[in-house]
């Protein structure tokens, strides 16, 4: 079977809710039934075949071509299979993802991987604010899985992050790791202001020296045996993190946020 492919006919003026077009919801449907699914587009609804040219039949392997930044909720709560986006994606990409794989060959909007539970999300472009964060009013963000970003990320990446791994090859905006409960965020590029604001536990792994607030204590330089093991686990990814020359085990350690529990750590490559 060939992949179920949705090719956008044209960009819409209003935002589109793509949550009905996800592997587990399409599993037992025919192409005719999929074409008749209604998608919310601003104040009106439109049939899937009005927006997309639909080909293929493998509902466990979905491809979205000519994708644009107004397509929200792509692969929402994905439980199985894979979703590939050729182009940009809107807000809430992979929201509540439980398993499977999502690959985006472009930039994504706000709240990508928000409250993600498991699986692998790969973003080959940039990501907006609140990557892997909690939804407004909630207290737990990303709870598991792996997010790999090959570009830059916006502000509040990993806000309220509970568990999982976030790998960022580019730069991270202000408040990276803010209110983090646990998990690991690795950033190869520069980080913005208020790094680790109100972190409780977890760790931030950095390649560049950050500007830290006074509530993080310098704990000196250390050789940490777990780091080579951690880097070895990255070898399976198509990423700079898989490059053995990027690995290290000697770090400058900072403990904090002392305004909170002070059990988190920021590890900077030496």
How would you describe the overall organization of this protein?
This protein has a domain at 110-269. The protein has 270 residues and is mostly beta strands. It has helices spanning 23-26, 31-35, 48-51, 226-233, and strands at residues 3-8, 16-17, 38-41, 44-47, 52-55, 58-67, 71-72, 82-87, 101-104, 120-123, 143-149, 163-168, 184-187, 203-206, 217-223, 250-256, 264-269. The relative contact order is 0.09. The chain has four helices and 17 strands. The chain is elongated and about 65 Å long. The model has no long low-confidence stretch (mean pLDDT 95).
Rg (CA only): 19 Å
Shape: elongated
Total number of helical segments? 4
Distance between the termini: 50 Å
The percentage of residues in β strands lies in 25-35%
- Spatial arrangement of strands, main beta sheet: 5-1-6-8-9-10-11-12-13-14-17-16-15
Percent in helix: under 10%
Averaged pLDDT: 95
The major β-sheet equals: 13 strands, mixed
Oligomer: single chain
Uncertain spans: none
| Secondary structure category | mainly beta
What is the ordering of alpha helices and beta strands? EEHHEEHEEEEEEEEEEEHEE
What's the total count of β strands? Answer: 17
């Amino acid at each position: 079977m060939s992949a179920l492919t949705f090719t956008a006919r044209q960009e819409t003026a209003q935002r589109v809710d793509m949550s009905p077009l996800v592997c587990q919801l399409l599993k037992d449907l025919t192409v005719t039934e999929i074409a008749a699914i209604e998608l919310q587009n601003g104040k009106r609804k439109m049939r899937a075949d009005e927006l997309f040219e639909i080909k293929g039949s493998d509902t466990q392997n979905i491809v979205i071509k000519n994708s644009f930044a107004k397509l929200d909720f792509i692969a929402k709560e994905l439980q199985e299979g894979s979703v590939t986006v050729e182009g940009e994606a809107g807000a809430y990409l992979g929201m509540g993802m439980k398993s499977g794989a999502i690959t985006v060959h472009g930039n994504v909007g706000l709240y990508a991987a928000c409250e993600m539970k498991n699986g692998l999300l790969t973003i080959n472009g940039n990501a907006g604010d609140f990557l892997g964060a909690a939804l407004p009013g909630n207290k737990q963000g990303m709870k598991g899985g792996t997010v790999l970003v090959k570009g830059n990320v916006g502000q509040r990446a990993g806000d309220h992050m509970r568990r999982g791994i976030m790998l960022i090859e580019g730069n991270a905006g202000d408040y990276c790791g803010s209110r983090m409960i646990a998990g690991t965020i690795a950033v190869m590029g520069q980080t913005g202001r208020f790094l680790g604001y109100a972190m409780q536990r977890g760790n931030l792994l950095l390649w560049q020296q950050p500007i830290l607030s006074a509530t993080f204590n310098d704990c000196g330089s250390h050789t940490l045996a777990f780091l080579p093991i951690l880097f070895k686990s990255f070898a399976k990814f198509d990423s700079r993190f898989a490059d053995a020359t990027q690995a290290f085990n000697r770090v400058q350690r900072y403990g904090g946020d002392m305004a909170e529990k002070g059990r988190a750590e920021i590890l900077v490559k030496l």
